[in-house]
Specification:
alpha+beta; three-stranded antiparallel β-sheet; flat
Length: 150
């Protein structure tokens, strides 16, 4: 399977406050969503559970993870990774001056497990941009232009 990318131009400046320069960067080019029903069907094909069983487990996982996060726990989901809460707040001059109202919001952070972390080093990237019509057919130096789909 391949991950498509497209190129964008962004203005960047150095840390010394120099003039902004335009640079070209690659960003992911997604080819759609995988919704819960399809995810459940694919898991069903790889296990002894029905799609409805998988959906029930995922729904319950969502509920239990939320409860554990609210209780201040870090949830370690096997090789998938960890979920934990983070927060942002305004700063106070002293500890005594800090109040609970200084906390602005909480966010859920996900840290992938080793299998997902290693995905970045083994994924095949292919350009999702339109080919230049002036180039001859078969000039496929960037890899498979039709990413595999499930």
């Amino acid at each position: 399977m391949s991950q498509g990318y497209k190129l964008v131009i962004r203005k960047v400046s150095d840390l010394k406050g120099g003039a902004a320069k335009e640079k070209v960067y690659a960003i992911p080019s997604y080819n759609g969503y995988m919704y819960i029903d399809e995810l459940c069907e694919l898991i069903e094909m790889r296990s002894a559970m029905s799609s409805a069983d998988v959906k029930s487990i995922l729904d319950n996982l969502n509920c239990v993870v939320a409860m554990a996060l609210k209780a201040g726990r870090i949830i370690q989901v096997g090789e998938l990774g960890n979920f934990r809460l983070s927060m942002s707040s305004t700063g106070s001059e002293t500890k005594d001056a800090f109040t609970r109202s200084d906390i602005k919001k909480a966010r859920v952070l996900f840290s992938p497990g080793s299998a997902l972390k290693n995905l970045g080093s083994i994924v095949n990237f292919v350009s999702a941009e339109k080919k230049d019509p002036a180039k001859p057919e078969g000039d496929n130096t960037g890899g498979d232009e039709n990413p595999d789909i499930l």
